[in-house]
Write a structure and sequence with these properties.
Layout lengths: L3 E5 L3 H12 L3 E6 L2 H16 L7 E4 L10 E4 L6 H10 L4 E4 L11 H11 L2 E4 L7 H14 L3 E9 L3 H5 L20 H5 L2 H13 L4 E12 L4 E12 L4 E7 L6 E8 L2 E10 L2 E8 L5 E6 L2 H16 L10 H20 L3 E3 L10 E3 L1
Parallel strand pairs: 1-2, 1-4, 2-3, 4-5, 5-6, 7-10
Antiparallel strand pairs: 7-11, 8-9, 8-15, 9-10, 11-12, 12-13, 13-14, 15-16
Bound molecules: nicotinamide-adenine-dinucleotide.
The site of nicotinamide-adenine-dinucleotide (NAD) has 26 residues, from helix 1 and strand 2.
Amino acid sequence: MSYKVKVFGAGSIGNHLSNASRTMGWSVDLCDLDPAALERTKTEIYPQRYGAWDESISLYQNDDAPKGGYDLIFVGTPPDSHMSLALAAIEEAPKAILVEKPLCGPGLEGAQELAEAAKAKNVQIFVGYDHVVGSASVEASTKPQAIGIGDIETIDVEFREHWGGIFAAHPWLNGPEDTYLGYWQRGGGSSGEHSHAINLWQHFAHSVGVGRIVEVSAMLDYINDGNVNYDKLCVLNVVTENGMIGRIVQDVVTNPPRKWGRIQGSNGYVEWQCGVKAGVDRVSWKSGDAGTNIKDVEKTRPQDFIMELTHIKNVLEGTVQDSPISLERGLDTMLVVAAAHLSAREKRTVRIDYSMGYTPAALKFA
Ligand SMILES: NC(=O)c1ccc[n+]([C@@H]2O[C@H](COP(=O)([O-])OP(=O)(O)OC[C@H]3O[C@@H](n4cnc5c(N)ncnc54)[C@H](O)[C@@H]3O)[C@@H](O)[C@H]2O)c1
């Protein structure tokens, strides 16, 4: 089935999602507030990344963009605009909306409202944590059960990556001060930008049945010089509903980067690593006395987003039932990000009470 897609944000992710949509054979209207961003898309980002501009993509400034009649709406703008754009997108009644990560700011503004509006209007929402639908993480999350690694002892995930690479992909930005990345309250810093790690940790925990994160003890290293205000390092110790302790590390300083995760059982382990070398993700595992197995998965960056959109298509068409990039999963990740900042500020362990919804009232001191 061919879908009609509207994309908000003609920046880095908006181009990836537009290109992936076109590869799927879908039609694309790409919108931005900034005419310079639309021009840059057509003359620089898209042709430089994918070889040539695609004339079938229609470019609009937001106010001139058509409303209604879309199958899918993608929100690929900075995090502090996600909630208002997603709420407005629900009013256009598409089949589904994909909102980029992090879903909102750590203040959780609009989070509960979005969950309620999506339910009331019966619009499916996905959140752009694309790593959990990549081939390597699908393999890593199903392996523990398939090979038998015993009782789950702990889970550890790191997304440690100097953000020089992000700025290299955004040559029009001088540094973190020019964008949300330099401000943790707007969804930037390592806690927001690399929240893929929290999300992947939660995905692994869900896959092996150890429950949701209910306790967070965090240390964050903030850079606040009166200009920028972001966390360069975010270290979390967490506890799940069934009492399992694990660790998550996110930073914007590590070079070369390390995006890695491990599920450790009493009788074996499964490890996942993104970008073990250029264009290769790796899954390795061991069960009992058997030797270590290694499987390399080759992929390109554009393929990450084709995988993500293929997943969304499969969910909408009913061939996949359960989505690890559902709104609920993205909101659970935001609760942990919010708990991390509160824990770091108060130097106390924070408990998450899921019965209070996606609001600051869900965060309590242990
Ligand atoms: N899933 C991933 O791997 C991945 C990769 C890159 C970025 N992202 C996420 O995508 C989001 C955007 O990041 P980016 O790197 O593309 O940023 P960017 O700065 O490259 O582009 C953002 C664009 O959004 C536009 N914009 C801002 N407010 C808008 C609005 N209300 N309506 C329409 N356009 C608006 C800006 O003018 C800009 O052109 C962030 O939340 C980021 O974390 C996710």
